[in-house]
Amino acid sequence: MALHVDQASVVFPSADRRPPTEALRAIDLTIENDDFVVALGASGCGKSTLLNLIAGFLQPTTGQILLDGHPVQGPGADRSVVFQKHALMPWLNVVDNVAFGLKLQGIPEAARYKVADRFIDLLGLKDFRTAPVYQLSGGMQQRVGIARALTCDPKVLLMDEPLGALDALTRERAQELILTIWNTTHKAVFFITHSVEEALFMGTKLIVMSPRPGRITHRFDLPFSRRFLAGESARHVKASAEFIGLREQVLEIIFADEEAAA
Ligand SMILES: Nc1ncnc2c1ncn2[C@@H]1O[C@H](COP(=O)(O)OP(=O)(O)OP(=O)(O)O)[C@@H](O)[C@H]1O
Prior knowledge:
Residues 3-236 form the ABC transporter domain. By secondary structure, the protein is an alpha/beta fold. The protein has helices at 47-55, 94-98, 100-104, 109-122, 138-151, 168-185, 196-202, 224-229, 234-238, 241-261; strands at residues 2-12, 21-32, 36-41, 62-67, 70-71, 79-83, 156-160, 188-192, 205-210, 215-221.
């Protein structure tokens, strides 16, 4: 599997007489199996616009998005999205929420529950299988959202600040869980966050974007998630000199962008 963003630009026309917004300019990005690509950058640098292009919610003004060589022309089951607000069906229980996409595809109940149960187990939700989702905590609801995205067996999992609404401790647990699942399923992931620490810990590749126009200004290959998955504790990884040094370097890039915008 290979997803290529090829010289993609997005210009939003303005509703009044102000100039149009150049949300993205000439973006080149490749996402392959086993890649965990994280996008980081000052507000308005085009992270969500880029995710929307990959999801097929939006078409580029120029350039193209190719999935295994075929142009992406709209949303598809090969790309699942997990949003910060989990958009679950509050009247359904956990298993029916997780199996919802399969139901839409017309898959019979027994077959869809079999797939859903695999991801319910993987995300530690077994004891809540038949609980209504409104009874769950925010962190658990987000796990239901991730399980639902995975049941469709997407080639690429797109995550737009999926952990942004969680408290600090739950967020760290969720980071570790997502990495463990990524390591089990070998999905390609495109992940947006505002947290530099989260970006460095989770990604195998980091893109740092700048606004006006939105573009990729820096790219880093990251070792930290693999160190965690090889057995090093998350706290140990995040406290290492290499991690802290890179964190300061990336923070400096982002602060410089935010100051330039102020
Ligand atoms: N539908 C739209 N119409 C007009 N302008 C838009 C639209 N969507 C986004 N924009 C503009 O495009 C630019 C990039 O927005 P985008 O939401 O992709 O940035 P972002 O990096 O995800 O921001 P944030 O971190 O604040 O969520 C911004 O200037 C935004 O105002």
